Model the fold of this input.
Amino acid sequence: MIFYPLNLAASFIASVLRFGAGAPGAPTEAAAPPVLYEFEGCPFCRVAREAVSEAGIAVLVRPCPKGGTRFRPDVARLGGKAQFPYLIDPNTDQKMYESANIARYLTKTYGGARPFIQWTGPVNLFSSQFSMLARAMAGTFRTKSRAPEKPLEFIGAERDPRARLVKELLSSMEIEYLWRPQRGAPVLNDPNTGASVVGARESRRYLKETYRS
Ligand SMILES: N[C@@H](CCC(=O)N[C@@H](CS)C(=O)NCC(=O)O)C(=O)O
Done:
């Protein structure tokens, strides 16, 4: 099928538009994973995800696509407004909105470099918006799915075009996952079924076959 190579090429362009921000940092784990409410199409959420990746910190992602019903309502309840990204760090009792604050907090608390593009003020936002357009807003809108009992685990860096394709689907399907932003081919582990899937195309197929309703 021609569609997958084109999809991957568009994801590569999205990474180029961010000048490769979101490299995988040295893997780190906190006593409890920070929880990130976000969605893939959101240009502000991308800034937060890049910081997660550069810090190498494992976080629990609760996807909140538009129209989402699984985690979206929690954010208004917990923080007072439906705005994304939203971070809760149980290790420090911090709860915060605002992508720039979240990125700064993650870098300060868990390490990693602040990507150059994030120092460029309005250019940062334009670049993130163009990146979203290159992906035709994939991961922005909810698609119906069956909720897994336990969160999945996904391994793959923010800047990796292959990993993005899987995260987009996890996002629109509102599937909660422990995200380990590490280098290498994307890997999706599902403790509910015992499956361990290597590769973006294969992971996408698995998600559709297992959780699409
Ligand atoms: N200044 C905020 C802006 C965040 C923002 O506007 N996020 C959008 C999504 S891209 C949002 O929450 N929209 C409301 C919604 O999706 O319901 C930041 O940098 O985090």
